[in-house]
Amino acid sequence: MIINKPICKILIVSLIALFSSACTTVQPWERANLAKNEMAINSDPMQAAFSQHVYTSKESTSGSSSGAGGGCGCN
Question: Which listed residue, 19, 22, 57, 63, has the most CB atoms within 10 A of its CB?
Fold first, then answer.
């Protein structure tokens, strides 16, 4: 397969421009919105831990996550 070098260069430059356009600075007044609990990946750590426990219990395989599950929730 022959790769056309000018097209490859144009593709690389356009990908760099595309990915670098997402880099921006956050203004100080915008940081308050990003610090809200709703913006966190796990806004409720206890609920996330419980959901992970239920998932690993119902998975019934030992390699699903960090714990071994039996399928009955009695681990």
Answer: 57
Contact 75, 57 (CB under 8 A): yes
- Output the pTM of the full model: 0.36
Q: Provide the pLDDT confidence category of residue 3 given band limits of 50, 70 and 90.
A: low
Question: In the structure encoding, which two tokens stand for residue 4, read together?
Answer: 């056309």
Nearest to 56 by CA among 67, 45, 42: 67
Decide if 62 contacts 68 (C-beta within 8 A): yes
pLDDT tens sequence across 4-30: 778 888 888 888 888 876 667 778 888
